[in-house]
Amino acid sequence: MSKLESTLASEEQNLLACIHCGLCLEACPTYTITGDENDGPRGRLYLMRAVGEGRLASTSEAFSQHIDRCLGCRACEQVCPAGVEYGQLLEASRAELREVESTRGFTNRVLQLVLTRVWLHPARLRLAFLSARIFRDSGLGHLLLTSRLARLVSARFELALALLQSSSPIELGEHQGAETSKNCDAARVSGRADVLLFTGCVTEGLFARVNRATTRVLEANSFAVHAPPHQVCCGALHAHAGDLEGARILARKNIEAFKDNSECPVITNAGGCGAMLATYGHLLAKDEFIADEARQFSARIRDVSQQLATVEMQTGAGISAGIVTYDASCRSDCNDQSGDFDYRQSGLPDANWRGREPGWYAFKSLSSGRAIG
Ligand code: SF4
Ligand code: SF4
Fold it and tell me: How far is the C-alpha of 59 from the C-alpha of 207, rounded, in Å?
């Protein structure tokens, strides 16, 4: 019996819970684009069950293609009346596929190598992000993109450069910075509750300004923010790529890093990280040494908007641009992490799909990724 077959057998109740109502289809970005039943949650569950029951080989093209195309956004879970935990089944399926795919194709091999040899080692990852920032700020990436030379190399290279360029720092006006500082000063004199910030690997490596802004907003709203120094990547990239063991290694490190102040909420500002951190309880359920701690850790995860919704919000810096667009992360929506935050969402057509394309997916399924992202 293969690893997937035994995992699916142990998740049988989860699979059998599907009542085939089809309510999840409309919520699924890949089904909406391809119109193929096998690219929707219900069809994928059929495929998983067929593999679990030995009617379909886990090495078959049909299985790998349709499981590969899934974004892992878990929008289907939110609308499922039967409570099918699709995300857990997907991860088990991907873990199995990884065994087969790790030897297939150049891109797969490179991505697997990066995940295991770089992402699992914080010092190497910091060095990689430092190199990326130097490259980005040198202007060379911008030149390669505007001259279209990047496209000549490959579409994936062009996409990687475009993503890197999008992380370029944005200058705040003097007025805005001053207002924010004033609010922080005001907060400092009042009593504050402690919160722990999960900084995230990509966010801290390329979008550190987002973490600094999150800290300022929390401080202006009477929270004392601490960022535990030994925290690592949440493991979402590994889990989505089927490397559950890699995800577990990172999960154990994070649980250890956030052990002190174990009563404090753990705040995330990236929906994908938040969703992953919230599943540590399940990820480590079979590890008797840490299962309880993992469950308790997952229960402490809060999206920043959830945390802000617990206090009367202080207004922040003056914003000179007329309309501000808040594109709620699908992971926040999908995992009920967005809280009751009042915001105005405008200007992005099909905004309900944006952000559902995980970084890993963007490189593996370039055309679908573009259609969605
Ligand atoms: S996780 Fe997202 S892409 Fe995958 S089946 Fe569910 S809704 Fe569709
Ligand atoms: S909504 Fe749930 S029960 Fe209905 S088809 Fe989708 S997975 Fe099955």
Answer: 39
Residues 116 and 59 in one domain: no
Shortest-distance atom of ligand 2 to CA 40: 6
How many angstroms does the Cα of residue 360 sit away from the middle of ligand 1? 15
Atom of ligand 1 nearest to the CA of 24: 7
| One domain, residues 214 and 151 | no
Range of the domain at 110: 106-170
Q: What is the pTM of this model?
A: 0.74
Q: Please report the pLDDT score of residue 345 as a whole number.
A: 40
**328 torsion bin: left (phi>0), alpha (psi -120 to 50), beta (else):** beta
Of 114, 142, 170, which one is at a domain's C-terminal end?
A: 170
**Atom 1 (ligand 2): residue with closest C-alpha?**
80
Residues 25, 114 within the same domain: no
- What type of residue is 74? R
Q: Is 349 within a domain?
A: no
Ligand 2 centroid – CA 41 distance (Å): 7
The overall average pLDDT reported for the chain is: 81
116 is a domain residue: yes
Q: How far is the CA of 280 from the centre of ligand 1 (A)?
A: 20
* Paired tokens of 204: 């801290």
Q: How confident is the model at residue 275 (pLDDT cuts 50, 70, 90)?
A: confident
Residue 133: half-sphere exposure toward Cβ, Cα within 13 Å: 14
- Testing ligand 1's pocket by substitution, the residue of 14, 25, 76, 84 carrying the most ligand atoms inside 8 A of its CB is 76
